């Protein structure tokens, strides 16, 4: 990896502001990660920030800058407020500022640098990984331009603004309306609460300078195809003549495996006789070098893999990688840090989350309404982690806002399409700012036909794209199967546990379902995985558990917010591996009413003792089809309305024999008691949002006999929706 040139000589001097000038956050959390202590203001995030388009020479501009916060209409301040550590957001602890910035304010950054003697014919590019949100850049008083967008990289050629010698000055002005505007911003709000987090303003990814030749490689669009045994390069040049020749070399373990060249503006096709496929089990990356005859050279890499949705042998649509079905099981990853907010303290910290996710046996991450720095995707490529990439959400009300959303979506694809880890685009989450979904799906398919598209994760599906995605908390659950799209569970779980000493705040933490001990949480998590295997057998193609870490007051992470405690045990990897193997099969013995209503005897009046016995006469009870409940109860398919507090049900069924591995299939809201031939075989507390499989013990099996049997149920309701449906199945393990 390249080393920055003379960083210590390039640091700008900062002036510490008096306390009166510091407008602190309304609350000042102090939780930090272990990597905060490793942040050196003279060597902040020193790794080259763009691994897929690397140059030998560069200057890292991270570190101490001057800053000021002024009225949004104000001019460049004559005196700055103090010193900020770039690229940590101004609201973060690691910035050294930790101040709120409101939509009627503007953040100013200033620093100087010295390039010394510059070579004849060199151009200098000033690069920003990302700045949130509207950015104006000046060098030596020359206005270079304005960029709008909080997640995509941008650059300016500063050559003509440079002085011949001596200090060079950069001034960056940033305005960010946060949730008072319509722009894409993910979960940032000015008043953090619940699932909405502290706002992020200004520079939050690396800033760097690099010299280039008069003709240089501006961008690489790499399109690998395992099926075609080829890698296609579209090379964008700047300043090159029509006579320029571009040469590309691919290497594996240092050996050249393919070479091709073409004139400027023409595609380059690198043929690979026996390509080594990239996958989670073997995340092999080829080295790639692209050079111009006039002298410019960049280094990159490529992972060769194909993704698709195809039928499995049963005719069920599955996600495939390199032609083979692969269940995607991963984490909802929000990418927040207690000390750096949007920005990880160090490269080691950035890598840690991915390494823990890999070590525990997950093979996928859904990057949730945030875009990470380029290095995160490089690390995902290197570790073999599949990535579903969300588009950061915004309100998107009005034509101007929707045009901005479309612009930033295109910028996201252009900036992250290099990475083999990215296998799916997710333009909409849960209907947030949803509009023109079909148009966006069509555009994504046109911009990038090599990846899958999830039209809307969660609520409002529009019937297009490659998957049908639902959210179920705590779940799990799945959508109905379709002939052309895969069924996926875009979010579930959210099991919450606050651990003292590791929370953002001492009180007011929450999860979708709370627990009081690690043992209880781990048992509940294993129970979710147990259910998930049955859904895979029914056709579920992917599932996303909420979430990687606690975030602010949310405590439903598999790690605490400071990353000090991993809540899942190390041996959970064995449970995760079972998800990728053959799922269990089920044979209905007593069908549920999920697909077709089954007849039950029922009463809402308390029956006499013995109502659950086979000999009880239920002729006076009403008869109706299941399920029973109220319309609108999550996951319910109501065929007989039930609104009272209690319901008793009976149903007779016939068995030819008694199978060995029996389970109830039940959807209950709320508490239910289940009997077989008068024997109480299950007590089910609380509620579910779908059907669960409940294993039965030997006593339950002993209650059954060949011939006629009786299934009886009592369900109680206290609040909210209500529903009951029960069946009996035989489970066949592979």
What do you see in this structure?
The chain is mainly beta. It folds into 4 domains: 7-212, Jelly Rolls (Sandwich), CATH 2.60.120.260; 227-302, Immunoglobulin-like (Sandwich); 308-581, Alpha-Beta Barrel (TIM Barrel), CATH 3.20.20.80; 587-732, Galactose-binding domain-like (Jelly Rolls). Helix content is 12%, strand content 35%. The strands form 11 sheets. Strands 29-28-27-26-25-34-31-30 form an 8-stranded parallel beta sheet. The longest helix is centred in the last third of the chain and has 21 residues, at 518-538. The two termini are 47 Å apart.
Radius of gyration: 29 Å
Give me the count of strands. Answer: 46
| Arithmetic mean of pLDDT | 95
Number of domains: 4
Q: Overall 3D geometry?
A: elongated
Distance N to C terminus: 47 Å
Give the class from helix and strand content and strand pairing. mainly beta
User: What fraction strand?
Assistant: 25-35%
For the record, the CATH class of the largest domain is Alpha Beta
CATH superfamily of the largest domain: Glycosidases
> Which parts are unreliable, with pLDDT below 50 for 5 consecutive residues or more?
1-24
Looking at the structure, the CATH topology of the largest domain is TIM Barrel
What is the annotated CATH architecture of the largest domain? Alpha-Beta Barrel
For the report, how would you describe the main beta sheet? Answer: 8 strands, parallel
How do the strands line up in the largest sheet? Answer: 29-28-27-26-25-34-31-30
Number of helices: 8
Helix content: 10-25%
